[in-house]
Amino acid sequence: MIDTTHKPRMRGIKQAIEEMKANDPYTALTERALRRLVLTGEVPSVRIGAKYLINMDILENYLFSGTVKDNIEHTAAGIRKIAE
Questions:
Q1: Is 77 part of any domain?
Q2: Distance of CA 50 to the CA centre of its chain
């Protein structure tokens, strides 16, 4: 069941970096580094056409703790890796 009390803050890669820099002007995270994290699957995303959408709560959890596992089960997006 989807938790509708918390709506995910989904952003494209460029918008995610802009938001991170707005919150922390000295962040070392770059657009290229975030794109690499998304393409390797370390940070889950949703692909729509050529665009990748990232849940900001999951991204922030990854940056703080180095893992996304704790946050995936508690987010409205419910982004889960699909078996290949």
A1: no
A2: 16
